[in-house]
């Protein structure tokens, strides 16, 4: 597992929202609102051909128009547009993508997984709520509930469980170091995240919600046994 491969996910300097919207019923509206309200200090770049501005922020008609490669791109469009958008992001130098779209067939998931690998793009999702990094003011999610900084990291495959935990934590005044919705885990999985969080000084405990694991050994690799010493 490579901690370096995913480290930019958790220390972004710029974020793009592909499919940003002024329609309150769209995920792209909620993600933009959350990012702007979270206090993130870096550039937040909405990408949409439908609006000149989203939440008062100048929008870019397409990915090629972005002034710089985003460290993270949150794709809030439907599943039919994912592959060309990921190709465009890769051409711009973006290597980290969050896909919130749900309802992909097994064939579509395999195609998305292979496409991201071919484009050298790290994928979180699909079918996920997004990512929160409270100490950086990053709320790259379409959750209606926010969280405050804390010492517990939470990782979940279920977006519904994420929403439940956020509501519970807000009521109990519990914060998180990271709040990560991994969805279908087509690329970034529990093992890689645990490797990162185990080295993170802000995280004192990790809470997991797991629906299923395709490869237990890959997700939770066992340490190498110590070498035998001749007597």
Concise account of the structure shown:
The protein is of the alpha/beta class and 231 residues long. It has helices at 3-6, 27-38, 82-92, 106-118, 159-172, 190-197, 216-219; strands spanning 15-18, 44-47, 53-54, 57-58, 72-75, 96-99, 122-124, 130-133, 138-141, 149-156, 176-181, 205-209. It has a single domain, classed as Rossmann fold (3-Layer(aba) Sandwich).
Produce the secondary structure layout.
Blueprint: H1 3-6, E1 15-18, H2 27-38, E2 44-47, E3 53-54, E4 57-58, E5 72-75, H3 82-92, E6 96-99, H4 106-118, E7 122-124, E8 130-133, E9 138-141, E10 149-156, H5 159-172, E11 176-181, H6 190-197, E12 205-209, H7 216-219
Parallel strand pairs: 1-2, 1-5, 5-6, 6-7, 10-11, 10-12
Antiparallel strand pairs: 3-4, 8-9, 8-11
List keywords for this structure.
Rossmann fold; 231 residues; globular; 5-stranded mixed beta sheet; 7 helices; 5-stranded parallel beta sheet; alpha/beta
Protein model, in words:
- This protein has seven helices and twelve strands.
- With 231 residues, it is α/β, with parallel strands linked by helices.
- It has one domain (3-212): Rossmann fold, CATH 3.40.50.
- The strands form three sheets. A five-stranded parallel β-sheet has the order 2-1-5-6-7, with helices on both faces. A five-stranded mixed β-sheet has the order 9-8-11-10-12, with helices on both faces.
- Strand 8 (130-133) and strand 9 (138-141) form a beta hairpin.
- The longest helix has 14 residues, at 159-172.
- The mean pLDDT is 91.
């Amino acid at each position: 597992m490579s901690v370096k491969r995913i480290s930019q996910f958790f220390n972004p300097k710029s974020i793009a929202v592909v499919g940003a919207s002024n329609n309150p019923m769209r995920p792209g509206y909620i993600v933009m609102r959350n990012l702007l309200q979270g206090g993130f200090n870096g550039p937040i770049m909405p990408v949409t051909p439908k609006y000149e501005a989203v939440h008062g922020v100048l929008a870019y008609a397409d990915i090629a128009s972005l002034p710089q490669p985003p460290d993270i791109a949150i794709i809030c469009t439907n599943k039919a547009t994912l592959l060309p958008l990921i190709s465009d992001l890769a051409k711009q130098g973006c290597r980290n993508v969050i896909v919130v779209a749900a309802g992909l067939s097994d064939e579509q998931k395999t195609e998305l997984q292979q496409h991201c690998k071919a484009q050298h793009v790290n994928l979180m999702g699909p079918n996920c709520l997004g990512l929160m990094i409270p100490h950086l003011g990053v709320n790259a999610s379409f959750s209606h509930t926010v969280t405050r900084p804390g010492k517990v990291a939470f990782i979940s495959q279920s977006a519904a469980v994420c929403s439940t935990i956020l509501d519970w934590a807000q009521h109990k005044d519990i914060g998180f170091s990271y709040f990560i919705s991994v969805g279908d885990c087509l690329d970034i999985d529990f093992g890689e995240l645990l490797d990162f969080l185990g080295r993170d000084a802000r995280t004192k405990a990790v809470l997991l919600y797991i629906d299923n694991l395709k490869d237990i050994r890959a997700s939770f690799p066992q340490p190498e046994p110590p070498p035998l010493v001749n007597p």
